[in-house]
Design a protein that fits this description.
alpha+beta; Porin; 10-stranded antiparallel beta barrel; 4 helices; 23% helix
Length: 270
């Protein structure tokens, strides 16, 4: 497979589009050539390509489930996820071998930046969303809803709090004329922390079942089957608020893929 597939994957991984529709046409042509020779191999390569995208785009809140004080709270953050590129490199190598081309190798870790907004509502509810606007045919978005059904103070420790929340989220990544990848997560988060007037610190962990699915948009002579898989996502993180400023560090693992995530932002309560 030509380096053009590598360019598409790089564009997605760093959250910027640097390729145009011609590259998508090239991907289609390469998969069509492979399918004409070995349809089973074409499906396997598509599944492998899909499996590298799905863990990259799952929803990452980088946020404690602890409710924001007041009636409504709004956080606006810049997030950066350090994506493991090992699977991407392996997939590109396999496609290049099948297509008789050469593969492009990337750094072991690629940054995926995105803007992220969270809104805290009364009764322990909160919602978050991110969006990567379409650039050169690549776009992504995601939403999440959390419900903190248990929340209170540890009476024997001053200013100490605890929270248990249910989590539901969904994401979609689209590479025009190539593929659409979607994920759905359902699980729970637990947090303990300290909440003071100008400083709050919360450590949390979470478990989710993540359903991942991908469908081809290439319009091949024989349609490729959808890729689907389910896996467990485990998350640990620390969320710090100092006045209106917020910092967060989070690590998650899906299968064998581990991702480090960071955020910086501002927040307001009403």
């Amino acid at each position: 497979m030509s380096k053009k597939i590598g360019a598409i994957l790089t564009a997605v991984a760093i959250g910027m589009g640097t390729v145009g529709s011609a590259h998508a046409i090239d991907v289609k042509n390469q998969f069509q050539a492979i399918q004409n020779t070995n349809a089973t191999q074409a499906q396997s390569l598509f599944d492998g390509l899909s499996s590298t995208f799905a863990p990259m785009i799952v929803y990452r809140a980088i946020k404690s489930p602890t409710p924001t004080g007041g009636l409504i709270g709004v956080d606006a953050n810049l997030d950066i996820s350090m994506v493991d590129a090992g699977g991407i490199n392996d997939s590109l190598s396999s496609i290049a071998t099948a297509g008789g081309g050469s593969a492009e190798s990337f750094e072991a870790t690629l940054p995926l930046p995105k803007g992220h907004v969270h809104v805290a509502l009364p009764f322990g509810l909160s919602a978050g969303m991110f969006a990567l606007p379409e650039v050169s045919g690549v776009s992504a978005n995601g939403v999440e809803v959390q419900y903190a059904f248990i929340d209170g103070e540890l009476g024997f420790i001053a200013n100490a709090t605890y929270t248990l929340a249910a989590v539901y989220n969904t994401t979609t990544l689209t590479v025009n004329n190539v593929m659409e990848v979607s994920t759905t997560g359902l699980g729970a988060k637990a947090a303990v922390g300290f909440d003071m007037p100008l400083l709050s610190v919360s450590a949390y962990m979470g478990f989710e079942n993540v359903d991942m699915e991908s469908k081809s948009l290439m319009g091949l002579t024989t349609a490729l089957n959808k890729y689907s898989n389910s896996d467990t996502k485990t998350t640990t993180g620390v969320d710090v608020k100092l006045g209106i400023f917020g910092l967060g560090v989070e690590m998650d693992t899906i299968g064998s893929v581990t991702t480090q995530n960071y955020k910086f932002g501002v927040g307001f309560g009403f």
